[in-house]
Amino acid sequence: MFARHGKKSIQTILFYRFLSVTAALLIIVSAIVYLIQYTKMYKNMENDIIRTSSSIGDAIDLQISQMDNVCLNVINSTSVKDTFADWSQNKNASAYERRQQQNQLNNSLVSIRGIDTSIRQVNLYSMESGGYGVGN
Is the pTM of this model over 0.90? Predict the structure, then answer.
């Protein structure tokens, strides 16, 4: 008539309590360790991104500075300005004279550019006609 309820021993009850408390502590400790590791990794990642972007910014500033120096040297070179003006305006010159002017422009621009291979090409443009470039 009455359903028989299984009686649990005190040992079984304590074991299940101990098991649930241990599991809860393990979950809490794991969550704390996870949060600590997450914040450390986040800060490291943030520092790496800042360091990388700073490095890229410095490299860009250096390249702009180098290009600026080359531009200023070309602008202030009377030899380049005079030769380029002669080359761009005097279309009736003989092939030999044109080649001489091109060689002089090449030599002047390459010497201004220097051996730095990060500046790949130097171009000159005239407001009236065409342009001239040296580099790869």
Answer: no
